Fold each of these.
Amino acid sequence: MSEITSLTLFELIKNIKEKKISSNEAAKSFVDRAERSKKLNTYVTENFENCLKHSKEFDNRPNFDLKLPGIPIAVKDLFCTTDVRTTAGSNILNNFIPTYESTVTQNIWNEGGILLGKLNCDEFAMGSSNETSFFGNVQNPIAENIVPGGSSGGSSAALAANLTPITIGTDTGGSIRQPASFTGTVGLKPTYGSCSRYGIVAFASSLDQAGPMSKDVKDCSILLEVISSFDKKDSTSIDFKRNNYSKDLTNNIKGLKIGIPKEYRIDGMPDEIEKLWQKGIEYAKECGAEIIDISLPHTSYALPTYYIVAPAEASSNLARYDGVKYGFRSSGENLIDMYEKTRSEGFGEEVKRRIMIGTYVLSSGYYDAYYLKAQKVRQLIKKDFDEAYNKVDAILTPSTPSSAFKIGEKSSDPVSMYLNDIFTVPVNLAGLPGISIPAGTDKNNYPLGLQIIGKPFDEQTVLNIAYSMEEKINYKNNISDWWIK
Amino acid sequence: MSDKSEFFITRDQNIYEVVIGLEVHAQVTSNSKLFSSSSTKFGAEPNTQVSLVDAAFPGMLPVINEFCVKQAIKTGIGLKAKINNKSVFDRKNYFYADLPQGYQISQYKYPIVGEGMVTLDMPEGQKKVGIERLHLEQDAGKSIHDIDPNSTLVDLNRSGVALMEIVSKPDLRSPDEVNSYIKKLRSIMRYLGTCDGNMQEGSLRADVNVSVRKKGSKDLGTRCEIKNVNSIKFMQMAIIYEANRQVDLIEDGKKIDQETRLFDTKKNETRSMRSKEDAHDYRYFPDPDLLPLEIDDEYINKIKLEIPELPDEKKKRFIDKFNLTPYEATILVSDIETSKYFEEVIKDSDVKLSTNWITGELFALLNEKGLDISDSPISSKNLSKLVNFIKDGTISGKIAKTIFEIMAEKDEDPEKIINEKGLKQESNPEELEKLIDQILNDNQDKVTEYKSGKDKLFGFFVGQAMKVSGGKANPKLLNEILKTKLTK
Amino acid sequence: MTIDLKTVKHISKLARISLEEKKAEKLATDMNSIFEFIEKLNELNTDNVEPLTSIAETTLRFRDDKIKSENIREKILKNSPEKNDDFFVVPKVVE
């Protein structure tokens, strides 16, 4: 059954529940395909043997009441997994084997999911192209030598290449939505506080959120239902009533008000993005939504704000990688020498650059001018959304200002790389839920995504709009398996 | 106690005053750590009380211990300080082997407790010392440099234990005041049960800020901070050394550098650790893993109901209600255990007599044996009985001392000792009369001498009576009878 | 405002990342272009804006004072690059 790997999660669950496919058959199909897909470089650590073993165990004692019954799943290598190496895409954690499990992955295993392996990502999730990973570039299955986006690039590529039926990523400034957009898949960043951060290697604590990545919106709702949970181990986890997202999913969005923020029409935005957005607006109308022009006046300040807040938090979060408790250590003549060499050799260039920026903006004499200023602007950005949500139920924007680019094309110019996240970053700063769904292609036939941003804790509306529009858009990925010989 | 606590340094005609401020780090009494659920118990095997959070494993997050927050609020109330409705946890960033996160979670701009006041009882009278603030923070682990000659070993048992940093205003002026301040702070926290104040175990340590200025000047001099001093004696030694060092510099026309210094206990000197230029840039910022700590007045008021009577109030009550002298009251309230002992003894016994016995014999005994009152070999119950036997005339004060010594060996009921050793005082007038008659009869010449005006011989007869009775004769009664008989 | 080489070196000290001369120069260039882009924030007057420290719309939750973590020394030391049975081992600290 070679087509097992191309099934959606929903279809796969159905087949497993109806005993048409066993968990082990599914696992074998994904493992087999992964073995033939090494060229994509999606996996940092394979857990194939264990996965096959556990799938057999599931088949011996199946429990079809679970939400992910015997489903093999590969996850971004930012989630700590018990006894399975967790690297965060970094040399400094090259040999780190956690003795504990992140809450999000634990939720998946509790519902019957089985770990296939750990997927490549930008180092410490810092990047928009997966090029900062210590474990090398990831190929976008859309075309050779094209980036899969980042930082959840291994996740988006593996998903688009049918190496996993579903996956999870983390999103600090767009790290789920941008790679989803680049690979023609669906990616959701939930409201800050929806998914526990416990056991996820931290990048920027006030922005990081884990979220589902899937082939379609329905799958996305199933996985969100599994991973979104209140967790006492995370002080920023929020105890709100979570929907049965998949059960409550509806394509009826008649009368919903969708805002179109004029500030997202940025200078130099390619025509095809503008056209995609217009098309999206038409689809939304066809679905019965009311389109309302809105203003988010501080949009252009989001990226500079992000590039103060995120590096500042990261510079502190990454201080624990000092060669003492775990991970890589370089030898040094004394403690300080050891620290400096370990961190210099253990971290890659982009990570070091951001640690330096973060250290600088927090340092004596600059705190008020940069960090405090950024926190204030963040408040203004959040207020923009608060006000917009007095008028609308959700906001529609493009996911990215361009389609996937060539490997190496932007890696020498950090600022042009950062501009990739221009539409996604404001959502993290305001802590809102946002989804990217595939909505069309550019001139090269590379996928392009649209983003739907919701009110806090209103993932259901975001999913419903996406579900409804998905039907109208009827996007089909055109992947040729070029990497399989 | 010396009768003056003044401290000045004199060089030729110049008299200098020393200005001292303390940052006391007090370990919060709690079962588990400030942000993790591992034990805080002292003296465990290295690295056995370390959780994944304490060792800062990737993805681990802090969750605050409510009890530690309450303890800080209680201490704040005890220091008559303002409790802030909103405070913020910040990260203090620096690298050190025993700081696993690469930052310490502390409170920087917005501490949980604001300004307060501590009252010291000095020989010259009461002295008020201002409290600047109190904040909660994590303790670091321990670096051990002397086990392995080539390496440093790291034990994280203490990593993450809750500390209260209590910052005083620069109101202290002498080593004696520092002694009194630390003792008072310790006493208040022990009354509250918020810190055991055990300096040997490092539950109480201080950074000492010292500057000097010419007597009468209102300006503050350049200060030096002496880090991490862990006994009152060392604090005093460090202050004396440091103040003299600074005065010498001024006298030589040199500048004092604002710097951090270490006190070398072996050499009895402070030495520079780092200058202001090398000062750490801690890059404080609000910890994004935590939210602001919000406490409403209702919460604070509830805690206020749990606050016991504190030393100052207790002292006032002892003076007002029991007629103690301020000196006696100060001694009896200085430690919560002492005050408890005292109140237990006086429940059924005479206050004045009890006070004398506790501050006299008992303190001497404890001092000699190096014991705390909580480990007193004589229980409050038995001391109370002993005092009652003195009061009702069953035994004399002298006999009581003998019994006290026996009690000190094993905590026995004084009644049992009196009965077993037959130490009961002879208070039967008829028996005493018989005894006196005998003595007068045996010493007729002395009686004659007495009657002819040699008054001093009265003592001789008392002595004889005591000797014959084995010390058991009731002295008061003996005196009365003797007087009557001799004047006949 | 420009970030000079001296500043870059100072920051690398604070961040405990050793830096070769050439790398430091490249970093200075990168940082300057990033800060040029960040300076845009100065267009905004934020005098009366309350800084946003946490986006989570909740208050700090308390934990009970209970000991839940047992002795997991083996697990704690397992991943350490250098350790003995009891301790993490680091190069000699020079004060």
Note: The mean pLDDT of chain C is 92.
Amino acid sequence: MPSSRRDTIDHIMNSVPNLNFLIKIKGFKIFMIFLTLEHILTHISFSMVSIVITIHLITLFFDEIVKLYDSSEKGMITTFFCITGLLVTRWIYSEHFPLSNLYESLIFLSWSFSIIHIVPYFKKKKNHLSTITAPSAIFTQGFATSGILTEIHQSAILVPALQSEWLIMHVSMMILGYAALLCGSLLSVALLIITFRKNRKILCKSNRFLNELFTFGKIQYMNERNDVLQNTSFFSDKNYYRSQLIQQLGYWSYRVISLGFIFLTIGILSGAVWANEAWGSYWNWDPKETWAFVTWIVFAIYLHTRTNKNLQDTNSAIVASIGFLIIWICYFGVNLLGIGLHSYGSFMLTSN
Amino acid sequence: METLALNVTMRTQKLLKPRTHLLKSPLFPQNSHVYRTLYCQTGLSFTISCKLRISKDKSNTMAEKVSVAPSLSDEGGNTLGSGGVPSKPRRSTGGGFETLKKLPRRVLAILSNLPLAISEMFAIAGLMALGTVIEQGEAPDFYFQKYSEDNPALGFFTWRWVLTLGFDHMFSSPIFLGTVVLLGASLMACTYTRQIPIAKVARRWSFLHSAEAIRKQEFTDTLPRASIQDLGVILMGAGYEVYLKGPSLYAFRGMAGRFAPIGVHLALLLIMAGGTLSATGSFRGSVTVPQGLNFVVGDVLGPSGFLSTPTEAFDTEVHINRFYMDYYDSGEVSQFHTDLSLFDLNGKEVMRKTISVNDPLRFGGITIYQTDWSFSALQVLKDGEGPFNLAMAPLKLNGDKKLFGTFLPVGDPDSPNIKGISMLARDLQSIVLYDQEGKFAGVRRPNSELPIDIDGIKVVIVDAIGSSGLDLKTDPGVPIVYAGFGALMLTTCISFLSYAQIWALQDGTTVVIGGKTNRAKVEFPEDMNRLLDRVPEIVSSSQSMPSDNISG
């Protein structure tokens, strides 16, 4: 009998007055477990990426050690799974896709970097991307876990406008796009540095060790050059390999940017469709939108410069480097100002 | 399609003899004569067959002869059923008409110039960036102060620049719109003068008949002792469309990647067209309606451009049945809901829906969005009298959280310093009450029926009446823009595909292979090498092979 069962339940509820409270406690415990799990995963992934970076540096300063290289790849895979676990944990306990604030989007960005790193590894293709993606992953991961953003580590509640299926599509596509475009444009920056240095070397041939004076930031690119140079010890071949490297860099930068451009296009357009559902207009000239469009246009320019043989390589690399800055303005700058409709999870809002 | 011709079978029985590689025999040099004569006499009638194998052991003389037969190429092309129409040279009609005709062509040439298009894109990007830096849509006084002539930004940028160039409303300023229109013209010109001809060329598949031409390609390789037919089969297995004619092979893959950039440009034009229609032919309006009241759609909507024409649906009357909010456990608002009923002119309900943020109502081309809310009134009982409706006023405080307040006068309403009970609310959930001195008295929820005693006055908060902030719009451009969005996403993805072309020529026992691709230039040689590794090598030691193996 349903009524008698309800009576029983009522009876139990009455006889245990603190049941509700207990349930809350239990929920809190689960929450704590999730939180601890998240902490562990964050730390593992962060220390993993640091180890990978150290290995990269070691292989740079000493000869290439195959075992070390292998272990660095394994480290990146571990990192990837840790960040994936982190995102899944957050998803489960916050009950929405973990992309509602800047911290989560940074974590997702470093996840994107690591997936860009991993895909070529599983395809057994060795390319220059890994030297870009690993440091990018550590910087984003480090920035996300560093003290600046500790206040917004808590996964926030979703404001009404964000409660939509479009959230997953729009934000994940945008951030994947940012990650790919950042990688591609960093490759272009590397290309520019190498080209620039080559010219400089012709100017002052006597000073061969000028290269070695370049600072930490360029060390990764030196590493790439070492990769290419490992087969040869002839300095006379250096220029040949260098031009080869420049071509390779240009090519990979082009492919990765094309991929990122697809993600960015899908991201912007799905955002427009979402905006038409939520705000009543598919385009509002909101600062974030506008900057995403600026990014899109700059990389469209890049793709067009690649089609023209006269403008290839150096010119297109300059455009991509401009794009690199613009992505950061779009991703962070607009949020820093905390203006417009996209101000969720900005620094200002959380400090208020 | 019969274009999948891989193996050549002549209509003569004689040539069907050497079926396999193993059968390659000293017989063949004799056959080759027959082959050649047939080749020249009957033209080519190829049929598709993957089972039949022709011998690769053609003599060098054979190859020479074959390469002399380009006169057959047109016929062969037609047989294979893929229209290889050469481009017709444009004929001038001559006279003064010519100069008139030349003008648009010159304009086209200028517009389709890539550096111009790139600078247009840079200009648009720059203007947009400027549009986010300069505050938009403020009163002129604001710009007078912010960009005063005493202290110009960058040494020259003053309010005169902002206002004369229309940078205070950047995204509708003539400069910005003009640049966009120019870019649209460039898009069209580029599609017309460059992309379509390139695509036409791509559709025309062409054989290369000399080994030198093939060796000039970006990727070249030579396979000794290989068969062009085997290569064809392997290429087909790798997703290539393969055309074979005599000793020549032509294969391509990813033609869609060649056409997709046209699609991207067309999709962008479609979006621009849709955007223009949206800007000129839509109506919009917003309204804040207290729960329980009505409004007529047409009263709210205002036209945005000269193409805006009202429809019958504008006579619809909207009734707000209920406005309510959902809350998280922490007390923050999780969602807004408005229960709406639409009535036509006769008072008949035509639609009813509860809308919320991200879930608008669509009726007859009109879309009603939940965008805002407000606190309309508070129903209170004072000492059991009433209920009184107290209008709530929005209070501006710093921060963007809403705060509403009202005042219940106590005592003589005509006295100069009137006192009363203040009530404040952030949402419809709880009301904070303050006594006559301004001290905190308590918090009550509406509908709780729990009275609060403030200085001997019993106040019961009966209900909190919210008003729903609705945005209404009609936008005829949306279907076009959405079509453009879909096309743009699709064509951008397809554009990532690489268009690869491969030519091969059987040169005696060796096969010369050349290929090129437009995008995946590094993967292409790797893929090609992998494919070419799979081409079987022909063990053609005619001496060691017992010749009596040959059978009918």
Note: Residues 131 and 311 of chain A are 26 Å apart (CA to CA).
Amino acid sequence: MKKRILASALSVFMVLSLTACGGAGAADQAAAPAADSGAAPAADSTEAPADSGSAEASGTTITLMASQDWIEDAEQTLGQKFEDETGIHVDYQILPADQYQDVLLTRLNNGEGPDIFMAQSGFALKTTYKVQDNAVDLSGESWAPSYDIFSAEQTSVDGVNYGMTYYDTTTDYYMIYNKKLFAAAGVTAVPKTFAEFEDACQKLLDSGVTPIYEPVADGWHQTMLWCENGQVFDKLEPGIIDKLNKNETTFAENANMKKALEQLNDLAQKGYFGDNYMSDEFANAESFLASGEYAMCFLKPGAIKNIVANDGNTAGYTEEDFGMFLLPLLDNQYLNVHPTGPSKFIYSGSTNIDAAKKYLEYITTKESIQYLIDTAADVENVPFEVGQTPEYSDMTKTFLDSYDDAHSGMVLQDVVTYFNEQWMDISTNLAAMFMGDMTPEEVLKAIDDGRTQLAQAAGDEAWK
Amino acid sequence: MKKNIVYPWYFALVSVIIYGIFSVLPGLIGIGYSFTDWSAYSNELHFVGFKNFAEVFSGNSDYLRYIENTLLFTIVTTVFKTGLGLLFAIALSSKIKFQNFHRGVLYMPSVLPILVTGLTFTSILNPKMGFLNNFLRAIGLDALAMKWLVDPKIAFFSVMGVDIWRGTGYIMTMLIAGIAAIPKVYYEAGSIDGANGWQRFRYITLPMLKQTIAVTIVLNVLYGLKVFDIIYALTNGGPGHRTEVMYTAVFKMMSKGLYAEGTTISSVMFIFMVIIGFFMIKILTKDEVVE
């Protein structure tokens, strides 16, 4: 009998310990992918000097954690040059996009952040990433005066700048299309309304070309299609953004937002994304456009150079064979402006703050910025003014110049609070919508629920 | 030496104290936090009663589906790992050529890091460019080339299939050890009495292996209930939320800084595990002779 009691008691202890793992354990598991990807927590991977503020930096390793596609190869080359000059090694920890935010937040929330972490700038910095606690004040750094004022606003919290957007935010994502495939399918003009866009997609499909390359597998791109048209919501219904931020209205009760989602879903249901979009990855977008298998993808203009230079470009497409237009959900013809982007922050708990600052200083010199622009094909400029020469193509210039301020607007994630934090959840829900598991109303309701949850957790007065 | 001697209680004291402080106590504290609004967004902590539990069990939330998925994963993987493990264990306990090689090959997936397994299978199971579908197409079985990890109807079964592939070798090894411990004299006696292969398995191997099988079932069930990594690596809960389980939900809540919600789900899992663990221990000890 005693034995049975002992066995039962041990079993209860065993499951209790598993419950304990549910809390702290999740953090351990979260750190694992980072560790497996060649990373290690800062404290382990660093030969930390006794006093990082004054000690010789040579031999130090700083860790930089980023999501896939946030670090250009050219920046890693700059990192190597930086190491050659200073002796400080930069360990780039690149994580898959669909896992990045969860892993980063778990590490930050558990006090185990990397020396430099990357996060999307904007509202979420204060509420989700808590950069006022988790990051170092960079307002007084040598590069601060040359840093674009609008980008600085987006990396600041309560007037203090904690970050640096080292990413081409001077252009945004637009629908990049193959002119030759359009012409071959009988599409003679760039679509300006949703009806025209669907008509073009159908013609392309009928001609044997998959209209749109939509990489859903990464878990972030599909949300772009909807949010990067967000400027149209405020144009169609002035004041809607303000009302959302004051909790005076919801996404679910907004007819325009619902209609835009229905249109997006329509594209998936009619087969315009092809039959493999759930597995398609962003990293392959350029090669699939280069092969001519797909006619369009929502990309930055700089991607055109990469498409043309891609090994898969057997048809010999040139840059002139590609163009760009606005995705006309809700017949949108307002240019999307998006000053936020992946930004770098120095972790306040880092033992290598000075070395990390040196790295940021190094990559923002005129030479480094010019090297990035010249080397990274999809970077045409970065939000700094150090006398660099931007590489905007004539096509990009013409396209951007065709929209004045009255016909431009900030994208949804830059103006709505408690929204960008949900980016990956929204992407998951959009994938569920494409599969028929969720309706557009349910996707919008989930956004509202998520906003309420985050706002209440943050003690936002508007949600009390 | 008497068989029923249990060592004096104080022999276990140090272990129990360490275990209590580092495992039991945090577990209990975690349960306590599930009754609060603990989050990364506020430094204040308020008692909210059963609000978080109500959210988990409300019909509006997805958690009930995650619980269903967790239980389905546990049952299916336990049945298949145990069944296949037993089959392989019996096959590889008989005298066949390259016995150790076969055992090694089957055991190999268990020692691979789960993330490596996940990344490898993500590539193999890619519907367009993956090895499996390319192979099926190459031999003319195009109809069998499916969207393994992204078709909502089969994604969860693909994940379970990969986990069964990964875990069967481990269960097989435990069962081989169990079979090896069965005295040969029983089989000799059975043969003399004219027992055929099936009868030897049914009346000698299976009863003698019962305790080992019970242990493997307990291990599989506990693993299944707390499964996280293989799903995280293969689908991260997708497509949509089709392969979401309780611990991927815990992870997502924790990473959002919604600690109270995360610990609430953990607490729910605790209740599940206590109930299941209790009944399993009862079954496990049912036939034991109490001296």
Note: The two ends of chain B are 14 Å apart (CA to CA).
Amino acid sequence: MTSQAPGLWPPSGPEVVFLLLGAVAVGSALLVVTTRQLVHAALWLVVCFGALAGGYLVLTAEFVAWVQVLIYVGAVVVLLLFGIMLTRAPIGPSAGLDSGNRWAAALVAVATAAVLVTVVVTGFRSAYAPLRPGQGAAEPLGASVFRTWVLPFEALSVLLLAALIGAIVLSRTDIRGRE
Amino acid sequence: MHVVYPVVVSALLFSIGVYGVLARRNAILVLMSVELMLNAVNLNLVAFDVWLGDRLHGGQVLTLFVIVIAAAEVGLGLAIVLAVFRTRRTVDVDRLRALAEVVRAPGSGRPDGEDAS
């Protein structure tokens, strides 16, 4: 797996594309956690998820990329926008989105980033994965989902049903708990 | 593709998500930061699946499962946030202290942990 790996620099063509998409993803993620407008945070989240889907495409995981676009960009962000609007969030900049322990949070995040980046760079400096197109297409992925991983797949469908019923029960106002 | 690149991007995304969970006060923004962390994990799973060349595609299938679980989680989380908003008129996680430990201010014997709804 690590034989005849080219050097880390200069990056090859796919790696340059991936690095640019990764920079877009990290930058928009930073804007998600720092912007002062709630709706803008959701829209930057769309940019971040889209860039990540592009990164999956570069990594030859096509099916995961399309599922990411469909579920994250299509469903999750719309749900979050619903939540923003149903909680009557103000449109426009709103003060007080950040709590007082922002500096402690930044310290923890920088420490986490330093530890993680140091560990993965020392651990996987020489790891090289040759990209073979078609590795993550729908056909091999579907075959392995419905052969090897069919039991967790069914368990997940039960989980989704339970989450659906739970969300309905929680959000209906005419169902009351016992007093 | 060097494995370092996606893994470093995912580590940065994860720590940005950690910052968001710790620093934001709006519950919906906290949920968004949790989504960022889940996406970091997904990128890791895909990168290592491509690196190891797993014939069962364990990494990518697990990524699909994590995406499904994230969808269920955000649905339930938003239902809970809306229920909290209906009863308390706020989604500010700093002010939702009904389940917090009661902090007694020194001097006064008054419990400080009441929620100001």
Note: Confidence is low (pLDDT under 50) at residues 110-117 of chain B.
